[in-house]
Amino acid sequence: MARQLNVDLSRSAGRHMRRDRGVRPGLCASYPKSKLYLDLPDACLYRVEVEALQINGGPAQNANEVTAAALKTELSGAEALMSRAADEIDRLNGSAADLAALVALAGNGPGQWRVSGLDPDGIELSTSRETIRHWFGRRVTNLEELAEQLPR
To answer: DSSP 3-state assignment of 36?
Structure first.
């Protein structure tokens, strides 16, 4: 079943939404097929600043205290990791053994997996059809801390 996200941009959209060309490389890494569409002249990417969250229906009974801040990954203090993230993703993708160990750690089986994202809280692995996330046991801020969280 596909997940659905409904976004209401009716209030203060100009203040909380701005065009962002800088996210294209990361988006293309996470979703390779997006390259086909992002080069079209009418394709635009926007950064949306989440101000509030409202959950409806059954899930709202159990998750009614989720805040907008809880949805964000805090990058401050992790500059050493983030400045090397692209290189580390390339390194992990270049090692079949590391990649297989990560996929097993994340609980998935065989496939054309690759590392598609990395941040202080976890690592994303993708195929052309799905993305899974492995959450680290603790926040990492540099490559040494990352190495401690990766399978050996």
So the answer is: helix
- Residues 84/92, Cβ–Cβ less than 8 Å: no
* Residue carrying structure tokens 């400045």: 83
Q: Look up the pTM and report it.
A: 0.69
What whole-number distance in Å separates Cα of residue 125 and Cα of residue 131? 6
Residues near 139 by beta carbon (within 8 Å), at least 6 away in sequence: 78, 120, 121
In the structure encoding, which two tokens stand for residue 50, read together? 């989440």
Query: Do 72 and 48 meet the contact criterion of CB atoms below 8 Å apart?
Result: no
pLDDT in tens, the chain (152 residues): 444 445 555 444 455 445 566 777 777 777 777 888 887 878 777 777 777 777 777 666 676 677 777 778 889 999 999 999 999 999 999 999 988 888 888 887 778 899 999 999 999 998 878 888 899 999 999 999 999 998 87
> Buried b / exposed e across 103-129, counting CB within 10 Å, b at 16+?
beebeeeeeebbbbbbbbbbbbbbeee
